[in-house]
Amino acid sequence: MTQIPPGRMLALYDDPASCERAAAADHHRVSQERRDMTTTDYSVKGMTCSHCADAVTGEISRIDGVSAVDVDVDSGRVSVTSTAPLDNAAVAAAVDEAGYELQS
Ligand SMILES: [Cu+2]
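That's the Copper ion binding protein sequence above. Prediction below.
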């Protein structure tokens, strides 16, 4: 995994140009294309609608280092973009908190 120098994230978020790009384009896509980010796909059981997706997104977003969460309800796929690899137990706990079950 790529190590991120301290201060690198702040530099990214303090750059007004990157904010404008994020606002103009699809926000998740922009986040995933940043090379210092890690994106991991998870499989979540039990989601049936956008409300479920919102609940899962909200809980996972609270984990330290998470910058984007993309949910596909039909397949149960949850793509999580973060500044460092995430602890699987933390993701499982967040999904459980939302009322669903992490598979794997
Ligand atoms: Cu639902």
